């Protein structure tokens, strides 16, 4: 009798606890991925995630083939598809790794119940986090709302579990159930092919994930603490989409980085900061697990009456990278080009949307959801609430990022702006973050005509700052 393994956000063969458990039954294993556009509601995959998913499933399918089996693809409501597939193959046991967003927890609970009612066994494991969201508790037994004590408690929790031996061989069933063809799912863009430039930057799949970690440890890791805030340098790991799709686990990262630290290959001071960022991800998961409506509702109640404005024009200027603030526009255009944006710049563009433009953080969150290859239900939600000042351990609302000084500090030579905002590529560093203050001859020499080749700022900084403070005053 076969068992069924359901791939979800764990598209890897190494360190996959539930897949390992399925194989250890000694029964033939049928593996499946279900593309479910219905159950997630608003949280259905966005466009950029579709591109990544296609590439990642393609790679996973090949790995499973090499291991001696086949990845079955099915589309539809997973609550119907999984029981139907169990019937098709005559499986008596289903395995999966757990998920933590509200819709996922509810769907998995309901399915587990109905399968168990039909005498089908269900085994679920933790394949996504260092610790389960309910493991790290305050002294009074509740979840943390502040990161630093959470991080301390995580470290004090003791040993992160060992990695689980990878799968190199798999026994499939004597005959396979029917499978969709990945190319029929239409996940890749056609006309226009906006993901063409993604191909140059990313290598989706388990191998690509390990390569990204290796490249990081061989280079930027040494100076991560200082360079992680510099969008003009490749100072971070770019592991986020790999982690989101589960092509690598935080447990693998934890052990590999710690080993490098012990061997003296990565300085402790740098490695520790990197692992603390991985722990921010854990913190986000803890937050969404314990506050299941967080993607819709502000954690801080007073913000639920915030007087957000509505302006399609301003929202579009932000989305297209046409705000007239170079660092903001560079970030939004990096997002178009790569499906990813540097963390420092995510903070700058996020702050600009909610404070300079007074637009609702949910608008930003949903735009990121559609355009990021690492769009993640926990990190995206928690980070947007953080930047809007309404989340846990959030940046206080009245601390308003100044896009000019942020640009000057973190992109001092303007290389990041020049890379993504073509129109400003000949602007000298001195004026690249404030082109509206540049003397006419400087603009002329750089071929910049404000309002024509590059926009004038869509809001005036000082006024916008005051408006934001006034809006905050109204809910205080
Ligand atoms: P590194 O610096 O190399 O960090 C390693 C890993 O740690 C990351 O891959 C990520 O999993 C985790 N991490 C790093 N920084 C953070 C952080 N601030 N919060 C939580 N986890 C972190 N991250 C996502 O994965 N998905 C999102 O949808 C997402 N949306 C964001 C929205 C906003 C408004 C902001 C300000 C941040 C968002 N982040 C999101 C967090 C962060 O920007 C990215 O995780 C990071 O830029 C990914 O790049 P990296 O892999 O090179 O990070």
Strand element count: 5
Order of helices and strands: EHEHEHEHEHHHHHHHHHHHHHHHHH
CATH class of the largest domain: Mainly Alpha
Q: Helix amount, in percent? A: 40-55%
Q: Return the domain count.
A: 3
Architecture of the largest domain in CATH?
Orthogonal Bundle
- Helix and strand content put the structural class at mainly alpha
By CATH's scheme, which homologous superfamily of the largest domain applies?
DNA Cyclobutane Dipyrimidine Photolyase, subunit A, domain 3
* Secondary structure tally, helices: 21
Bound molecules: flavin-adenine dinucleotide
What keywords describe this structure?
single chain; 476 residues; mainly alpha; 3 domains; 5-stranded parallel sheet; 21 helices; binds flavin-adenine dinucleotide
Description:
By secondary structure, the chain is mainly alpha-helical. It has three domains: 3-127, HUPs (Rossmann fold); 129-162 and 205-290, Serine Threonine Protein Phosphatase 5, Tetratricopeptide repeat, CATH 1.25.40; 301-475, DNA Cyclobutane Dipyrimidine Photolyase, subunit A, domain 3. The chain has helices at residues 17-24, 47-67, 78-89, 102-117, 147-156, 198-201, 206-218, 224-227, 240-244, 250-262, 268-290, 312-320, 326-338, 343-356, 361-371, 377-388, 403-410, 415-420, 429-432, 440-446, 461-475, and strands at residues 3-7, 29-35, 71-75, 93-97, 121-125. It has a five-stranded parallel sheet with strand order 3-2-1-4-5, sandwiched between helices. Helix 5 packs across helix 11 (268-290), helix 11 (268-290) crosses helix 16 and helix 14 packs across helix 16. The protein is globular, with a radius of gyration of 24 Å. It starts with a strand and ends with a helix. The mean pLDDT is 97. The structure holds flavin-adenine dinucleotide. Flavin-adenine dinucleotide (FAD) is lined by residues 228, 236-240, 243-244, 277-278, 280-281, 284, 343, 346-347, 350, 368, 372, 374-376, 379-380, 383-384, 387.
């Amino acid at each position: 009798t076969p068992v069924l393994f359901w791939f979800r956000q764990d598209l890897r063969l190494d360190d996959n606890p539930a897949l390992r458990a399925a194989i250890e039954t000694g029964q033939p294993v049928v593996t499946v991925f279900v593309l479910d556009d219905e159950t997630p509601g608003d949280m259905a995959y966005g466009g950029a995630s579709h591109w990544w998913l296609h590439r990642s499933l393609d790679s996973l399918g090949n790995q499973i083939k090499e291991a001696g089996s086949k990845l079955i693809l099915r589309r539809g409501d997973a609550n119907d598809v999984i029981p139907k597939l169990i019937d098709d193959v005559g499986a008596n046991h289903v395995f999966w790794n757990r998920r933590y967003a509200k819709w996922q927890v509810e769907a998995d609970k309901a399915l587990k119940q109905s399968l168990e009612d039909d005498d089908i066994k269900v085994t679920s494991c933790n394949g996504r986090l260092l610790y389960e969201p309910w493991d790290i508790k305050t002294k009074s037994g509740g979840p943390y709302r502040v990161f630093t004590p959470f991080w301390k408690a995580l470290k004090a929790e003791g040993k992160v579990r060992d990695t689980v031996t990878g799968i190199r061989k798999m026994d499939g069933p004597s005959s396979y159930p029917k499978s969709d063809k990945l190319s029929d799912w239409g996940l890749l863009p056609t006309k226009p092919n906006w993901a063409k430039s993604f191909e140059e930057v990313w290598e989706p799949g388990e191998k690509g994930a390990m390569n990204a970690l290796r490249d990081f440890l061989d280079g930027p890791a040494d100076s991560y603490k200082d360079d992680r805030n510099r969008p003009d340098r490749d100072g971070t790991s770019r592991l986020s989409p790999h982690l989101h799709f589960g092509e690598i686990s935080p447990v693998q990262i934890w052990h590999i980085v710690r080993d490098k630290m012990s061997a003296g290959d990565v300085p402790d001071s740098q490695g520790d900061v990197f692992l603390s960022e991985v722990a921010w991800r854990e913190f986000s998961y803890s937050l969404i697990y314990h506050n299941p409506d967080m993607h819709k509702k502000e954690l801080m109640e007073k913000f639920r009456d915030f007087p957000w404005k509505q302006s399609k024009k301003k929202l579009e200027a932000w989305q297209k990278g046409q705000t007239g603030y170079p660092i903001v526009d560079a970030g939004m255009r990096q997002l178009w080009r790569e499906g990813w944006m540097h963390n420092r710049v995510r903070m700058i563009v996020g702050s600009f949307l909610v404070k300079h433009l007074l637009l609702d953080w949910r608008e930003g969150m949903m735009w990121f959801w559609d355009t990021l290859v690492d769009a993640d239900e926990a990190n995206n939600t928690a980070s947007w609430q953080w930047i809007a000042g309404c989340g846990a351990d959030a940046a206080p609302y009245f601390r308003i990022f100044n896009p000019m000084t942020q640009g000057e500090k973190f992109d001092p030579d303007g290389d990041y702006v020049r890379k993504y905002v073509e129109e400003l590529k000949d602007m000298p560093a001195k004026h690249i973050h404030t082109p509206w203050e540049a003397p006419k001859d400087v603009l002329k020499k750089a071929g910049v005509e404000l309002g024509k080749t590059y926009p004038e700022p869509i809001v005036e900084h000082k006024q916008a700052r005051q408006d934001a403070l006034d809006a905050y005053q109204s809910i205080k």
